[in-house]
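Running this now, will post back.
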Amino acid sequence: MPQVSLVRTNLATVGIESFLFGIFFVLTASSIILTIYRQKRMHGNRSLPQSTLALWKQPMSYGTVILAFTVTTHWTLTIFRLFQAFVLVDDGKNAEQFYGDLRATSLVVKTAFLFSSLITSDALIIYRLWIVWSYNMHVIIFPVFTLIGLTVCGIGLPVQLASFSPDLDIFARQAGQWITSDCAFTLCTNLYSTIMIGYKIWRINRVTLGMSYGARNLLSIMGIFVESAAIYTAWTIFVFVTYLSGSNLQFLGSDIWPYAAGISFMLINVRVSLGWAATSRQKTFAALNVAETLATMTGEEPVFDHRNRFPMRPVAVNITQATETMGDPDHFDSGKDQQIRTGTPE
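Update: finished.
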């Protein structure tokens, strides 16, 4: 298979990256607007400033801002490097040589923001996993370790590139050990988290089979997670394969990587928020927190049993008192049924 030139690869990257950045920007803006709208509806149509301030009490809002900043900066550096290659450096006469220089400051900084986007995206899906599993710390032990591994490699690769020898390329062993590790760590994080989130929602769906409409919404949320995560996972596999095959298309794959992560994350926000907005009057599936969702179905606040890590709902219990009548052991006088409404069992 003939090798694709670096200039052609990077020119194609600029076009595709700009298109995906536009999609990411629209999804981010839509996510913020829909989230503010949800806050207003859930809290009695409070004012816009109050709804906006309330968002900053949620860690997911900070993650959205950080991801938007890192992805936007990555795109800005891509455009800046395009001008460097064809205008600023040697009057654009050595674009091929410029794109092949792995020690360029702009490339090192761009790589750092690339991995900042991946680390933020992986941290957010782990946070969602923790929320969906009712704050169970044991469930997130594995993905936390893979996230730490991704962070170490995400720091190591830019440092390695800054000290690269001019005669080495991106496929040299010094860079390959970092890149392949990055792919493996982020694949493990996303596959594990997606499977565990889907499994938790499937389990809760079995409990809510009697609530047919709510059950359908639970399954639709599981579909949203799986479909959105599949975008990021598929692109990570593409980066992995193109790098191992030694193709310059890996530059395309790496540059598109943060947009695949960002779009995957924002798609979940927007699709869930759109579903919530369309059915908010019927109090259906309203949030990514499964416990909050089950509470939304009934219009009540969830009560957590922190020992069992399972959202406990108020239960109606019928107790029948039976009294044995003196002289007739086969006759029982049933007392009045009592109904007790209880929450978390003692």
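The chain has two domains: 6-294, 304-342. More later if anyone needs it.
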